[in-house]
């Protein structure tokens, strides 16, 4: 007789919802509706497979009620008027970032790294903090022009590189590790900061547009300058985050991208706000026109009603444009360094070649199998 497991239907529904499984994925088990209704029980093998698919320990599935799942860092998504779920994808991403950071901090200390001066150095002033970030990353408006940066894509690559050269770690990914079946949704996470005076880490959800990622990067920079570690989702110049930490970081990010004094000097025409915002965003600030529109509103260059009307129209236009553009899969070997952070990626491979880091640990940190790690080592050595 087939042995079955007495699983609380509430636990099965909770596990499936938390893992983001829809009817198509649940169809793997023909009797899933009966399990969820309590009309039938899964076999031991089915229950174990279900637990594995929903990324929870088998023992958790046997509990009477769902356990409380908390992030190991601050959840800056709180206070949005609704509960913020912690999916297995988000939790695993935070843990993966922590593992890489912990490994790299040990490595950097062994290499003689000294504490960095900028993590936790921010005062209360938005303008002061924004200026410090822009200066430290060499991203003032004159520096952008000298660097011949063309757009948000080149700007993002530039500031991430500058951050890493200072000693930080910058990661860009839209899935858990290298698993393209485990998506990180923008509605749940846009950015993550892990503070450290040796190797502060910034993670940005790369499912966003390049302009959106650039804003998220500077939002997370503001968290690092504050000395914060936490997960963010309300990252937008028009965020409804209110007056807390997230709103402060959004204002810092906007000021880094579009300094108020510089915008006042350039000027915008109220009657041609959309056109001027588009031109300045493209030619001078290398960001989304939406940031320019709201910066003009905040600086008092246009009245609030007009700015809000133009912002709403441009937001819809840009969203439609982004939806049409879509995203390609990309080359795995080019994508992986960005996912793990180029500095950490290079250090891990170097330590493996030198026999300091084991293959097993490197495979875990990079989320790859043995054959892939061998190919990465070969490609990295040939490129050196």
UniProtKB/TrEMBL annotation:
InterPro entries: IrrE_HExxH (IPR010359), Rad_response_metalloprotease (IPR052345). Transmembrane segments: none annotated. Residues 189-267 form the IrrE N-terminal-like domain. This is IrrE N-terminal-like domain-containing protein.
């Amino acid at each position: 007789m087939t042995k079955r497991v007495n699983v609380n239907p509430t636990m099965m529904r909770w596990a499936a919802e938390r893992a983001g499984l829809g009817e198509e994925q649940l169809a793997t088990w023909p009797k899933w509706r009966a399990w969820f209704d309590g009309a039938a029980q899964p076999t031991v093998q089915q229950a174990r497979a279900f637990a594995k698919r929903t990324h929870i320990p088998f023992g958790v599935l046997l509990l009477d009620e769902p356990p409380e799942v908390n992030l190991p860092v601050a959840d800056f998504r709180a206070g949005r008027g609704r509960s913020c779920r912690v999916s297995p994808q988000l939790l695993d991403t935070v843990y993966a970032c922590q593992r890489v950071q912990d490994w790299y901090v040990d490595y950097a200390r062994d290499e003689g790294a000294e504490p960095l001066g900028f993590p936790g150095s921010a005062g209360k002033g938005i303008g002061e903090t924004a200026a410090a970030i822009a200066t430290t990353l060499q991203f003032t408006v004159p520096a952008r022009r000298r660097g011949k940066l063309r757009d948000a894509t080149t700007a993002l690559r530039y500031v991430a590189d500058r951050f890493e050269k200072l000693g930080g770690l910058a990661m860009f990914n839209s899935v858990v590790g290298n698993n393209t079946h485990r998506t990180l949704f923008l509605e749940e996470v846009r950015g993550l900061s892990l503070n450290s005076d040796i190797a502060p880490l910034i993670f940005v959800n790369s499912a966003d547009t390049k302009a959106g990622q650039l804003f998220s990067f500077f939002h997370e920079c503001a968290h690092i300058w504050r000395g914060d570690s936490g997960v963010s989702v309300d990252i937008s110049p028009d965020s409804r985050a209110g007056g807390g930490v997230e709103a402060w970081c959004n204002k810092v990010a906007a000021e880094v991208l579009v300094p108020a004094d510089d915008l006042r000097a350039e000027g915008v025409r109220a009657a041609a706000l959309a056109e001027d915002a588009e031109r300045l965003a493209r030619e001078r600030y290398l960001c989304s026109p939406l940031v320019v529109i709201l910066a003009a509103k905040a600086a008092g260059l246009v009245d609030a009603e007009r700015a809000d009307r133009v912002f709403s129209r441009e937001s819809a236009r840009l969203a439609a444009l982004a939806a049409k553009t879509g995203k390609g899969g990309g080359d795995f070997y080019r994508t992986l360094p960005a996912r793990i952070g180029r500095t950490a990626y290079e250090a891990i491979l170097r330590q493996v070649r030198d026999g300091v880091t084991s293959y097993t640990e490197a495979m875990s940190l990079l989320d790859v199998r043995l054959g892939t790690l061998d190919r990465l080592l070969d490609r990295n050595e040939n490129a050196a």
